[in-house]
Amino acid sequence: MDFKLFILSLVISQTVFSQNGSLTITSVSQRADGSGIVDVYFDLSGPENNYYISLEASFDAGSTYTPIDHSGTSGDLGPISAGSNKHLIWNGFQSTPNMYSTQTKLKVTAGTIPTYITDIDGNVYQTVMIGQQLWMKENLKTTRYRNGTSLVYPGNNNTTWQNNTTGAYAWYNNDISWKSSYGALYNWFAATNSNGLCPTGWHVPSSSEWVQLINYIGGSSGGGNKLKSCRQDNSPLGGNCNTSIHPYWTSNLTHFGTDDYGFSAFPGGERMGTGSFIYFGLSGIWWTSTQNNSSTAWYRDLGYNYGVVGSYYYIKSAGHSVRCVKD
C-alpha cells in the first residue's frame, strides 16, 4: 500500500509580526502507522502572554502555500504562552484527502492575533483583520450562549418564534444542512442576551462598529460588493469564484462580490417575524446590537443585485445572521 509522503527535510517557520516573538521548529515527523498524522514540535519565545499558532502546507516545494483549517489540527494552537517543546498535530489525510507529494513543506506561524476562534458548541471560525477590527469571517452557528445555556429552537412552530422575547435561533427553512455554509438565524433578543451569544472575548457589533468597517473599506456605495464572497453562480471572475456549490450568491453580472478584504459575506436569508423564511441566496442580513426603539433594531444588509451596504431597522423577533467582532 502506498502512503502519502507529507514532509521534506526543509520545514519553514516564521512569525506574523516580528515584534511578537520567534518560533523555532525542533522536530517534524510523519507517523509510520499509515494514519497520515504529522507531529511538529517547536519552541516559542517572546514577550506576550498569548500566542496563536497557524499552519500552512505547500505541495509544490514552497511555491504556493495553503492555510490548513484548524479542524485538521490539534495540540498547542493557542492561546499559548511562550515555552519549549510545544506540540502541533496535523491530520494530513483528513485535511488534504487524496493528496500525494514528495515536495511537501510546512510553514508554522505564531502571532498575537487569532486566526481561528471556537464557540461553546465547538464550531471553529476563521477570523480576518480589517483595519483595527478583528472579525469572524463566517456566520455564527452556535446553539448555546457562551455560558452553556441553550437558546430556544422553535423549529416550524411559527407562533413560538413570533412570541419569543428571550432569544431564539433557526436554520433556514428549519433545515440544519444549511448550518455549515450559512450559519444560523438569530432573533435580536438572542443577539443581545446578557448570557453572551458570541464566544468569550467577542461580541455582536454595534451599529457604529459596522460604520467603522464600512468607512475603512471606502464607504457604503460599492462597499457591499467588496464585502461579499466572490463565490457566485456565473461569476464573471471565473475560477473558484464561478460556482453553484453552496455557499454562493445568486448570479448578477454587475454587483458580483470581489471579497477585497476577506470578509466573505454569504446570503443566509432571513426568518421574518411571522416565522416565514425569505431571501435565501439573495441577501445577507446581520443584526447589530443597536436598537432603534422598543420593538425594532438596526441591521446591515448586502444583496445580490446591489452594491451598497444597507442600513435598516426591523422588528426584533426577526431572524438574521450574526457576525462577531473581537472586544
Uncertain runs: 1-19
Strand content: 25-35%
Could you give a short account of the major beta sheet? 4 strands, mixed
Cα distance spanning the termini: 50 Å
String of helices and strands: EEEEEEEHEEEEHEHEHEHHEEEEEE
The radius of gyration is 21 Å
> Given the structure, what is the number of helices?
6
Which sequence of strands runs across the widest sheet? 1-8-4-5
Give the number of DSSP strands.
20
Compact overview of the structure:
This protein has 327 residues and is mainly beta. 10% of the residues lie in helices and 31% in strands. It has 2 domains: 12-113, Immunoglobulin-like (Sandwich); 124-326, no CATH class.
Commentary on this structure:
With 327 residues, this protein is mostly beta strands. The chain has 2 domains: 12-113, Immunoglobulin-like; 124-326, no CATH class. The protein has 6 helices and 20 strands. It has a 4-stranded mixed sheet, with no helix packed on it. A hairpin with a 2-residue loop joins β10 and β11. The longest helix has 10 residues, at 207-216.
